[in-house]
Write the structure tokens for this entry.
Amino acid sequence: MKIELRNIHKFFGPVHANNNITLSIPSGSIQGLLGENGAGKSTLMKILSGYLRPDRGEILLDGKPLVLNSPADAIRAGIGMLHQDPLDFPPMKVLDNFMMGYPRGLGLPKREAREALLSLAEQFGFSLDPDAYVDTLTIGERQQLEILRLLWLGAKILIFDEPTTGISAQQKEKLFAALRRLASEGKTIIFVTHKLEEVEVLCDRVAVLRAGKLVGEAYPPYNLDDLVRMMFGKVISKGKRIEIPLGKPVLQVKDLAVEDYRLRIEGVNLEVREGEVIGLAGMEGSGQRHLLRACAGLIRPVGGEIWVDGENMTGKTYHSFLRKGVAYLPADRMKEGLVPGLTLSEHFALAQEQTGFVIDRAAVLKRTEEHIKRFNIRGRPDSTVESLSGGNQQRALLALLRPNLRLILMEHPTRGLDMESAIWVWNTLKERCRQRTAIFFMSSDLEEILHYSDRILVFFGGRVSEPLDARTTTVEQLGQLIGGRGFESQPEAAREVAK
Amino acid sequence: MSSHEIIIGLAGVLFTAAPIVFATIGETFTERAGVINLSVNGTILLSAMSSFAVAVSTHSIFWGFVAGIVVGMGVALTVAFSSIALKQSQVAVGFVLTLMTRDLAYFLGNPYMGLQGPRVHNWPIPVLSKIPVLGTLLFNFDPLTYFSFILIIAAWWWIFHTRPGLILRAIGERPAAAYVRGAPVNKLRYLYTALGGALVGLAGPTYSLSVKAGWKGTISGLDGIGWIALALTIFGGWDPVRGAFGAYLFALLQWLGLVLQPYMPNIPSQVLQVAPFPLMILTLLFVNIGNTEWVKRTLAGLPPDARRWATRILRWMQVVPPSALGTTFEEE
């Protein structure tokens, strides 16, 4: 189906999130929608999926005006959207999630749904267990479930909002194959992203948004420099590898074993030195998170030892690790990193060494203003953290870290950030390395891991590779290891515990 | 005690648990939709008093029940309206309402204190009630007890085996996700809060016109039941069958308190009367113990096999609350 957006305007308070956007998308094509964080891509797509109502403008479907008052209207019109953070129900089973939103009947069409799920999954080469709980699935699998669900409901227009954030390279391949196939079947695909490579390999056409406005459209073969200029208004690049001389050991992991009810990793041996960056690669849920959490004192290891600065910290609590200068930045910024409802200055008051009983408002305000300036956070001391964009939340988290840390543990340091913010984040981190802090991070972005780490550990189903030198490793080698090739040679390294 | 007495006693447990079952399942529906109605305790008192007053004045048990249900729905809708439309805290509003409705019940109920009123009669089920043992145990009740049995099954079936039930779980779990799938979240929250309130309201007349017929003001012995129902909703993991099981356990403990009293003359009778309450709290603690940090840390030290078993048992017992419980949702 052909979609036309005409003169769409949307305001959030004083912010003009969508400013007179007109875009026409033919059926059977993959339309890219490119722009940095906060450019208005998600807002536009939420309007098209009925989640938000435009303040002005109209939507035409095959030339007929379409009024969307709720997502239910959009579903009836055949428009389905995959949200950036999968909007599903983690504590429920895959099959329940699949049936949720099925519009008719009193009883649950369990058998019918199961058959539809399995046959659709087979067509696209997805493997989904209908009886698994969604909270045991990776982001990529949850996305696959959403795609199949929307297809089952008969969606003809599918919107993907930053779908490659947080999924593995293999899942990305599968996703792209599925999208190409859907487009060839005549479905209209809208692909929202801030990654140029993805536009290049996937999209039949692309529209670029900047600060709420549609600044241009392009067709293959794309001129990437032009796209970057349209996105940012200027040209930027990642820059050269930064080499920092290493100091004495900070973290020593000796024959470590960690497990939960799903996964066991064991036999991890590693020494991390001052100024060193270690990247953890692997599919989501392969054990990287377990290792980080164990090194932060959040999980008690079931075997082996963890030493920080020559002191045995095995089995100590998170707070003892914190006192030794170990900081942990979780992936879910709003859930585990920041306190929703508190303002920036209240966060700085919390993060400060606790002295005295009464908060010294003036001092905190001064500190907050300094940090806002130094870390380039777009917000005021009295803005609540949830009102900040993802990039600014990450800047705030980095600003909240104490000085003179020994070790920073990070999950996805630049997930969901545009290129400019990501480069800024890494410059800040490398600055820390120069001050002899070690960094230990996991990421699903292979380029990021290769570009910023000194050494790399690859995880596969709880098994851990020997450390690889990032200078001599290629994306292809890393991709193969992540997929499990090369692990057969070390079967004694680890085993997976049956559920 | 003869075996016949034990069977009569157990039947009595099923009979006296009926109003607790109503209130627990009502609250289960409400909380599954994401709304906490903390006014249950006061609501039961006010609906018990009003239905007794109406039944006495109109000489009609039917209008008595209608009055109780209307009171329950009214209080529940107040909570829903102040939360959904006025964006007020459900906990604060519910708390104030529970105190207000309790005092209203005692104050307005004064003229009806100790009056003789109508009560619901037993409806032994023909044939089935003549079966030895089972007949006495299951088929010789008033209609309310039968309804409580049916309600447990029906509520369980509705929540876990129907399409609307799936949507009910969705709006309490993640309203935004339910909304993008086309569910009218706030409309449904009103609906289920009203339904839950009606069931809590039904518990009132079930006491004042049947289980503890009459109205005796502060010594009616109904104060506290609502809090137990709230606890059972959680203990039951927002599952009607587990919640009802808790209600029967509570009624059983109360009955045992009465029965055991003659055999234990050294223990003051108050202890046995109060015992069910702390026992319920201990059960709650036990059910949720798997969530605590120290248990997880202790488990990490066990040998692998024992650890796996313990983890599995704790995971089975663990209850997961509807994630969006007590929050408000704005469409757009």
